[in-house]
Structures are given as structure tokens and as C-alpha cells.
Amino acid sequence: MTGVLIVEDEFLVALYLEDIIAQAGHDIIGVVADRRGIDAIDRPPAVALVDLNLRDGPTGPEIARRLAERYGTAIIFVTATPDQIDRPPVTALGYIRKPFVPEDVIAAVSLAAGAHSAPRPLGLHTL
Question: CATH code at 86?
Fold first, then answer.
């Protein structure tokens, strides 16, 4: 079971992602909506699904870098504005464009979690 952190400020989107990830058998570490929320997580996430524009502004890329540097977290950006991704962390696998399909999210998390047999999902774009 892979620990997944959701970094998303839109409540319904976060809830939907949480449901998709839990039904796929992964453990949800938490949902955070801004930079401050990252300090409240209680264990390192293996994978983070990160939106770019959050409650405190366009802080998603900064949060992604902090997670990658601090924990080695694999990052998957989930965004409608991928052109705003600047200086992605080395652990970033790419981005999934909103609106997304659940299968792409599940496949991307499986790939990030190290499932070597998982094919790269068509909806996961490289940076």
C-alpha cells in the first residue's frame, strides 16, 4: 500500500481524488490546500498529487519541490494549467490535465509507486 498525499484546494476535486486513490487500494496520508498544510502531515508520502494554484496562490510547484527534497516523494501534477509548472523537482513524473479520468490517476500512482509492470498512462504527460 502506497501512501499518497493530495495537494488540492478545491474540495470536490480533492474528495474525488481521495475516492479514486482509496478504491485503488492506496493509503491516503492526507489532503492539504496550501503551504501551511504540508507542515501538518504526520508521515512522508511516497506519492503526491499536486495542483498548481492553491488557496495561498500558485504555490503547488514550491510544495512539490519541498516534498521531493524532504522526503523523496514522487510528484504527479494534476492541473488545468501545465504551462505554469516551472522548475519541477527531479522526482516529478509529469502531469495529468484536468479534467482527468480515474484510470489515468490510478495508473500514474501505480507507476509512481514503483509498479514496474504498470504502463505509462496516456494521460500522464512528461514535463
Answer: 3.40.50
Q: 76 near 47, Cβ under 8 Å?
A: yes
pTM score: 0.95
Question: Which pLDDT tens digit goes with each residue over 39-93?
Answer: 889 899 999 999 999 999 999 999 999 999 999 999 999 999 999 998 999 999 9
Query: What are the grid coordinates assigned to 66, written together?
Result: 519541498
Q: What is the largest CA-CA distance in the chain?
A: 38
Domain that holds residue 14: 1-46+60-94
From the list 37, 43, 109, 35, the residue with the least C-alpha distance to 65 is 35
**Cα–Cα distance for residue pair 63/35, rounded to 1 Å:** 6
Q: What was the pLDDT predicted at 114?
A: 85
Contacts of 79 (CB under 8 A, 6+ apart): 51, 52, 53, 60, 85, 95, 96, 97, 98
